[in-house]
Amino acid sequence: MRLKLVAVAVAALAPVVAMLVYNEVALRHQRNEEVRASAAQAARQASSEVERIIEGLHALLVSVAAMPSVRQLDVPACNTALKAVVESIPNIRTIFVVGLDGQPICGSMAFPEGVIFSDRDYFQQMLTTKAFVVGTYTQSRLVDRPVLPLAMPLMEGDAMKAVIVSGIRLDWLQNRITERGVAPGNAVTIADGNGTIVAHVPSPERFVGTVIPDALERLIHADQPDVIDVVSQDGTERILGYRPIALPSSPLYVSAGFSKEEAFAPINRATTMNTLAIVGGALFAFLASIFIGNRFILVPISRIADVMEKWRSGQTTARTGMKGPDELGVVGATFDRLLDELDERRRQSQEAEEERSLLVRELAHRVKNGFTLVQAIARQTFSRSDPERYNSFAERLAALAGTYDLILSREGSASSVREIVSAALRAHVASQAERIRLDGPEVVLPADIALPLSLVLHELATNATKYGSLGSEYGTVTIEWKHDDGRVLLVWTEAGGPPVSTPTKKGFGSILIERAFPAKAQARSRSDYRPGGLVFEVIFLIAEPVARGEVDPLGKDDMHASET
């Protein structure tokens, strides 16, 4: 019952759990879409800022190219002018002009001895494209610090005259990205065309100058921007929005990663709280179901069962004492009323049984008196004239009186089949035992079977005396019985009497024979009125058989008598 109550509580909680799970899935999906959109937006903003910085420096180099001292390659004037420009712009360290052979011409600072720039990738690229070029992560030969070089041609008409070179200070670029602010767990990465990181938030000292992992290198030159799930170099799971170099006006790769742990932290906390709430609610529901079940269901049911058990043990005064408007209270009160009625009926039955017993004893007394009176009359009538016949009559009368005394007293006891048969027939053939043949094993019958069999045999003997073989001088009766697997088969066979015919109606004796045995005996009987005499067969149980089959274990599968 407790398990059933728990099952009811689980069934009640199931819709709530299902709703919370659905909301959890929906919220996580919604949050995932929001984070992906935020990552894409953050990558666009960072890329846009980098583009503005590059465009600003491009415009600066265009302005420098228009300066007369630069166009005329007037070294002293050019040096002075470029130094003044650098002093006013904090995001660059130097600006200098290089000849087409890579030799420096003029600049904002003095050149080291023997320095040359013709081997630089950006320089070779600019000579090929004759257009503004953003180089890759480069260790400066002038200031010995990493820079992001910029170069553009100094044109005179359609001919390239020289190359103007500058470089973005990577420490300044790093500061600009850091100043934008990045939430804990998030990351912004800027890399050049070779995949070398030129700015990174957080931990720039760990990542700047390193190469993006091979697994993410394909993103640098991807066809379109996108948002993906990745595990960053620091081991953090992130949703990464990225902008590849292939985009127009996008000389650098930019990505913005949002930490999943931080992004889903509110939902995870809500999930934890909801889970704790569900577990707490489930525990409360289980405890409540157990408490309520014990208090309002199991205790009343146990009380009713306890009263029933006491009744079985004979305590007929036991009652539940239950009252109240609830269903089990009504059941208990109804059960008490039923027990009251049963107790009253039992009392009335006892009174009726006492009255019946008194009447039976009175009847037995009167029958005994009747037999005594008959015996006295017989003794007075012919005991002196024919003592031998009187003695035979007296013995038979005494046996008949004993049989009637047993029937009327209902005081049966366990007896063997042979004893029961002998007692039933003694009154009818007391002095002619040779007319009775008994054949069968020693089988002891319990009291509730011995008395019905005694009644049946007495009735058969009475009918045989009145109408059958025992009523004639030379008639005989053969009683045979067999015992097998808890069943007893008894066959009563008459011979030597008057012709027998099937009765046209059923008398009380026949009804008694059919209904004498209790139901548990599963008795079946058959009467065969043969011309030579009655053959009566009865089979009944005295113990549970070991196995039952379609065929009678005593070999009487052809017996189709009515069940008693």
UniProtKB/TrEMBL annotation:
<dbReference type="InterPro" id="IPR011102">
    <property type="entry name" value="Sig_transdc_His_kinase_HWE"/>
</dbReference>
<dbReference type="Pfam" id="PF02743">
    <property type="entry name" value="dCache_1"/>
</dbReference>
<feature type="transmembrane region" description="Helical">
    <location>
        <begin position="276"/>
        <end position="298"/>
    </location>
</feature>
<keyword id="KW-0547">Nucleotide-binding</keyword>
<keyword id="KW-0812">Transmembrane</keyword>
<keyword id="KW-1133">Transmembrane helix</keyword>
<keyword id="KW-1003">Cell membrane</keyword>
<keyword id="KW-0597">Phosphoprotein</keyword>
<protein>
    <recommendedName>
        <fullName>histidine kinase</fullName>
        <ecNumber>2.7.13.3</ecNumber>
    </recommendedName>
</protein>
<keyword id="KW-0472">Membrane</keyword>
<dbReference type="Pfam" id="PF00672">
    <property type="entry name" value="HAMP"/>
</dbReference>
<dbReference type="InterPro" id="IPR036890">
    <property type="entry name" value="HATPase_C_sf"/>
</dbReference>
<dbReference type="Pfam" id="PF07536">
    <property type="entry name" value="HWE_HK"/>
</dbReference>
<feature type="coiled-coil region">
    <location>
        <begin position="335"/>
        <end position="362"/>
    </location>
</feature>
<feature type="domain" description="HAMP">
    <location>
        <begin position="295"/>
        <end position="347"/>
    </location>
</feature>
<keyword id="KW-0175">Coiled coil</keyword>
<keyword id="KW-0418">Kinase</keyword>
<dbReference type="InterPro" id="IPR033479">
    <property type="entry name" value="dCache_1"/>
</dbReference>
<dbReference type="InterPro" id="IPR003660">
    <property type="entry name" value="HAMP_dom"/>
</dbReference>
<keyword id="KW-0067">ATP-binding</keyword>
<keyword id="KW-0808">Transferase</keyword>
